[in-house]
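CORE FACILITY INTAKE
Project code: CF-77B
Contact: R.S. (postdoc)
Sample description: multi-component assembly, two entities in total
Requested service: structural model of the whole complex
Turnaround: standard
Below are the sequence entries exactly as provided by the requester. Do not edit them.
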Amino acid sequence: MNCQEFESNAREIVREQSEVLEHAEGVAHAKRCSHCAERLREEQSLWLATRAVLDDTSDQANAAQRRGEAALLTVLRQQSVSASPAFSIGARPVIWRWEP
Amino acid sequence: MEGFAPLPLIRIKAGWKIRVLMTKLTEPSDIELLRLSADGDEPAFLTLYQRHYGLVYRFALLMSGSINIAEEVAQEVFLSLIRDASGYDSERAPLPSYLCGMARNQVRRLLSRERPYFQLVDDDTDVERLPQLITQDDPFRDFTRNEMIRFVRQAVLALPAHYREVVVLCDFEELSYADAALILDCPIGTVNSRLHRGHALLLKSCAFSKVTSRQPLLLE
């Protein structure tokens, strides 16, 4: 692998989204080339940063999820009640009366 | 039977994989849960909600930079799902893609409503015109984790919207190009080129090269 090929694959190499052989060649190239080693470190730093951001955002998502749950369940209940024919607007229950 | 002789060994070696497979097989599918939810089944709806809320919320948060918008968008997406589940066509896209697509539209709508407060960069912004978020010195030396997270979020927000979308979906959520293309309703090639450009812009604005000399190469 040369520097140009490494450059176009650096993102995938760090994220282990490249083919096994490509990954191995990329890492081997970075060990020989100081420029590409630096490039690999950059990609690793960005990847680690994105993981940290994602973890942090996931914590916020969990809190928001709990807050929104009750309101959505209320809507779901209302929806299923209004969709039920027995309770639909305008529907009148049929009452059977025995008349001698 | 001789054919079964190696089975215990295979089972031991592949035990973890078998367990994962069995879990996936026993979990109800999104379509099944959606059908039950439409009939008012609360546990089914909650399972769907818990399964996909995170993705929708994180996407909205990273796209907008606003907790309020993210929460509003996520709530609106699941409300739409309750009110009109028939709007989802399982043959067109998996449910997460559909939900993210809705979230994307909602974020756009809310950002345009609050445009005075959100300075979105135009489509053809050059790298040099992006805000330089760092100093020439090592910016992370005294950074805490929280500061670093805030810094990266700002860098993501500084990206033009069409690059930001693919960066959030592919770099952060690690979706495939095909899944991102479904959400963004564009060809895979477009996702590829936007990601290449957006990723480069993000790297440049973060300038991690200033700080990486202290970090070892993780890959072997």
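Facility notes:
- The longest helix of chain B spans residues 42-64.
- The domain at 27-117 of chain B is CATH 1.10.1740.10 (Rna Polymerase Sigma Factor; Chain: A).
Invoice: internal transfer
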